[in-house]
Amino acid sequence: MKRLNQWLIGLAALCGLVCGAHAAQELPSAIRIAVPDTSTTAKRYSGGMVDILVDQKRFEQEFAKDGIKIEWVYVRGAGPAINEALANQQVDFAYYGDLPAIVGRANGLDTQLISASRRNSKAYLGVTANSGIHSLADLKGKKLAVFRGTTYHLSLIRALDAQGLSERDLKITSMDTSASTAALVAGLVDAVWGANNLLTLDQRGLAKVALTTHDLNNVGATHEVVVGRKAFIDRYPEVVVRLLKAHQKGYEWLADVHNKAPYLVKASEWSGYPPALLERDLGDEDFADHYSPRLDAPFLDTLQADIAVAQRLRLIRQAFPLADWVRPEFQAQALAASQTAALAPSQP
């Protein structure tokens, strides 16, 4: 009996080792990633890092040997629709604006923030041709359209705050991008706070761009993040590191100054926006900084401030500890792995 017990104990230990090794190698069958679809054509376009990762198949190359399928889920409904997809476990990761990510987390979405994907993107103030609006101070008493609850709403509030203004000083109406564009052209509103689509109206003489957040020293600039479902991250931590390692490769390509012009040409093809518009929007950006994935102090400070503003606007009921949301260790491991690979001798 004693020998039998010893044999059973040994068998259990062996099984534990085998099962443990198997568990360590457990991989998902697919990785599903939600991104906003901002294209004006039948082609899909999200902008920046996402387009490079898709075009160069960075994730597909990283996980091909494991048979893991990469599914890009393009979402027209932007932040709220992406949050719904995360809540319903229809996607595992998302690249999108900081405000919807904050709102999702505050409303109970069990996500973890694993990377930045874009920082200090311009927000635009588009105005009617004869509005006489040249600055934020000129907006007092004017009718302005912005899509409430979006990153641009948060952007507007931060820009107004810096000028000693508030929403009460304006007549603000909530409209999505299509509705606000039409309203501005028709003269139903005096101004619109939004994205680079306002440059199209400016170029066609249908409206004017009075200023951007770059004119305000980036106060009110928009930011984008990468989040993942905590359940997926906890189950497949090595996959997260590899995902960010592949992201880093795409970033390094985009950060190379020699690739800026080729990227803008491709972005025009993907988005349907004229090359001149994208040059006007992105030509003065330092891509190495603009698309940096770093979760550094300035970026985290911005997120902390955004959480506070979102609570003040009652977009979220209560704030939450940023430290409980951000998981910088995955990015650190991915960067270390990338640097190790770069230093490794090439195979003969």
From TrEMBL:
Q: Which Gene3D superfamilies match?
A: Periplasmic binding protein-like II
Identify the domain of life. Bacteria
Q: Which UniProt keywords apply?
A: Signal
Q: Which Pfam families does this entry report, sorted A to Z?
A: NMT1
For the keyword Signal, the answer is yes
InterPro entries (alphabetical): SsuA/THI5
* SsuA/THI5-like domain location: 63-255
Signal peptide (residue range): 1-23
Extract the PANTHER family matched here.
Answer: ABC TRANSPORTER SUBSTRATE-BINDING PROTEIN, ALIPHATIC SULFONATES-BINDING PROTEIN-RELATED
Name it. Answer: ABC transporter substrate-binding protein
Q: Which species is this UniProt entry from?
A: Pseudomonas putida (Arthrobacter siderocapsulatus)
